[in-house]
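A common beginner's mistake is to predict each chain separately and then try to dock the pieces by hand. The better habit, illustrated here, is to supply every component at once so that their relative placement is modeled jointly.
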Amino acid sequence: DAGVIQSPRHEVTEMGQEVTLRCKPISGHNSLFWYRQTMMRGLELLIYFNNNVPIDDSGMPEDRFSAKMPNASFSTLKIQPSEPRDSAVYFCASSGTSGPYNEQFFGPGTRLTVL
Amino acid sequence: GDSVTQMEGPVTLSEEAFLTINCTYTATGYPSLFWYVQYPGEGLQLLLKATKADDKGSNKGFEATYRKETTSFHLEKGSVQVSDSAVYFCALSASGGYQKVTFGIGTKLQVIP
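With all components supplied together, the output reads:
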């Protein structure tokens, strides 16, 4: 299995631009998570989906952030308009229901820099 | 709500030293407990896990025991190597419900030769 795939790996954009991050979870997994990691705030859960349905989006910072999961193999996190304070590493993770352990498998992350 | 408290780093050790990273948790029911590791420039990956009281998780020389009486899950390794330098996250997953995992803040470990 290729693991969780994220694209792009690096994104540099200017303030005010729209940014779209993409994630392909591990095949067969039914839960998907978006995290943001910064030095100041550590690892923050933004939103998670179960069976393509958003379950908890309380971590989404503000209305500029939106996430979708149109099918079991694809999710996007969009920031519009982007701001310098959005600069961070964004991780996508997925997990399945094959056992009780709820292990999450993380992608390599997207490093976002907003100038 | 559920929470995980772990010691703040950074922790700097010499090679072959003994490692302990403390972790305590607050949760209802009987959560599963995890240690994840993040190497520089990579995503998190599961290091070890324990799913019930007194279970010991182990991997790559690391160990942690699920202590329900003290609500702790401390990470230990008898002899660290330079290659163990990374950030370590304690985490829990509450029993039942959806598969949400609550992570601690992470502890950075630096091992010097």
